[in-house]
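Input set for joint prediction.
Command: fold jointly, output tokens.
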Amino acid sequence: MKEGVIALTKRFKVVLNTKWCKSCGICVEFCPKKVFEFTSDGKVRVMREEMCVGCRSCELRCPDYAVEVREGEEE
Amino acid sequence: MLDIKKYLRLSKLPHIWCPGCGNGSVVRALIMAVDKLGLSKDEIVLFTGIGCSARTNVIVDFNTIQTTHGRTLAFATGFKLMRPDMKVIVITGDGDGAAIGGNHLIHAARRNIDITTILINNSIYGMTGGQYSPLSPQGTYATTAPYGNIEPSFDICKLVEAAGATFIARSTVYHIQLTADLIAKAIAHKGFSFIEVVSQCPVGYGRRNRMRTPYEMLMWQKEHAVLVQQAQRYSLEEMKDKFLIGELFVNKEKREYTELYEELRRKLAEGGEG
Ligand SMILES: Cc1ncc(C[n+]2csc(CCOP(=O)(O)OP(=O)(O)O)c2C)c(N)n1
Ligand code: SF4
Ligand code: SF4
Ligand code: SF4
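tokens >
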């Protein structure tokens, strides 16, 4: 195997359970990468999953257990 | 990674709390603590009373008992005497625990019975529509204080300490990891342990007190809480509108109630005079 300097960027899946989410906006404010956004009808949705850095702040702070961050495959 | 669903009754979700209510986060902190301690769900009994805070035991998959308003610690005391091997945890609110239940609280503390009490302080009676409680800060607004509350509030941690509890801590929903760590310490402590968790009721309290969103309420907690280890950096003047968080008091000397009770029972069973 060659020693490389290829940066391995981890990808994350941000899974929002829309049945449990109450669109309180906490994850929208605490996510450092602005992954979540309010839609025009006031619902919170995952808009920029590819920006996620896996800090799990959303998961930790969601009072409704509606977000799960999963580690995806490495690129 | 913590698999929180392992500890929840999934059929009871989504829970009934309002958007952004802090109760769900306190439940998460409790589960983080239980998971950290490696306790099984079956060795825990969670008692609650009445109020939004009491609905915590609908969603948590421990042994759960809901009792009457304010009397939770009386039920929990009876149970703990019968089953001292079980981990008894009480979740109460600022109305449930400090108003109608204040008397039970000080006597459970005085006995130093091995129960962990988590008081969710959202500064209001949430369930009944936003009446002020003995923990609502002076000057804040409630349905029963439309011109501002003129009553001074209790420092509930000092009150419970003075009453005889042997582990006292305070945290907030914003400081959720600290809350989980303190709950774990409290459960591990033998004796009456008490944690006040400053929480948010966006609907009954936030709206009336110039905090429009759950996020603003969390930031209020962040800005007004001072870690006890850092308190000396602040002047008395600066501390006036702030509160301490962290482990506030521990006493490992005082004897625990169910142990004393068991000793007495043994002595009498052996024909002694007590
Ligand atoms: C004996 C009795 N008195 C009054 C009530 C009405 N009541 C229900 S919940 C509640 C207040 C709860 O406030 P708190 O403990 O702060 O809980 P929260 O709803 O904010 O979580 C009151 C007064 C009752 N159910 N039983
Ligand atoms: S914090 Fe949870 S409930 Fe609130 S908007 Fe985000 S996912 Fe929904
Ligand atoms: S894990 Fe962090 S970066 Fe990813 S969505 Fe959640 S808060 Fe945003
Ligand atoms: S009224 Fe307040 S305490 Fe009760 S569920 Fe709503 S936000 Fe939570």
